[in-house]
Design a protein that fits this description.
With 174 residues, the protein is an all-alpha fold. Helices cover 83% and strands 0% of the residues. The protein has eight helices and no strands. Helix 3 packs parallel to helix 6. The radius of gyration is 21 Å and the shape is elongated. It starts with a helix and ends with a helix.
Length: 174
């Protein structure tokens, strides 16, 4: 059980580092991206496997945890939250459900004359598309909820201290 959770987290961390490399973040951000992805994906796996939660609810909980940890890691790394949490969320996108919905749509188009198969493929399409859209929406919502809950902290991470800025502005020649 523990080895499954650790393996899930490590594989998610590797994928997140790959996704993060595409956007060329600072080197110090890669460690935080990996930790965020491993924590979030392992949490989702644990909630789904051992707590009996569905994929959408567990994805929301995991993305909320990623968002909260990104708030803390953003302060440590002086990186914007999006640099940290977007690559960490990408391994949790339900690609198999998206694939199955497109596959069902293609099969539907090939079997328009057979109403029995058409009903089957329409049902498969809507079930898989609903799961895909729900999970992606809740992943985005959970991570960005942190920005709405802590707006001052979220936007001040990469900014200078307001007192320091005020001193520099008053000291500069006009």
């Amino acid at each position: 059980m523990i080895t499954d959770i650790i393996t899930d987290g490590v594989l998610a961390a590797v994928a997140a580092i790959g996704f993060g490399a595409i956007s060329y973040p600072p080197r110090k951000a890669f460690l935080y991206i990996a930790i965020l992805a491993a924590t979030g994906h392992a949490l989702r796996y644990t909630l789904m496997s051992h707590a009996g939660m569905d994929i959408a609810s567990s994805s929301f909980c995991a993305s909320l945890a990623i968002g909260l940890l990104a708030l803390w890691f953003g302060r440590l790394s002086h990186c914007p939250l999006t640099v940290l949490y977007i690559p960490a969320l990408l391994p949790m996108i339900p690609g198999m459900y998206a694939y199955k919905s497109v596959y069902a749509l293609v099969r539907l188009m090939l079997n328009l004359d057979d109403y029995t198969l058409s009903d089957l493929y329409i049902n498969q399409f809507f079930v898989n598309a609903t799961v895909t859209v729900s999970v992606v929406f809740l992943l985005a919502g959970g991570a960005t909820l942190v920005i709405f809950l802590f707006p001052r902290k979220a936007y001040s991470m990469t900014r200078r201290n307001s007192r320091t800025s005020a001193k520099r502005e008053s000291a500069s020649p006009k």
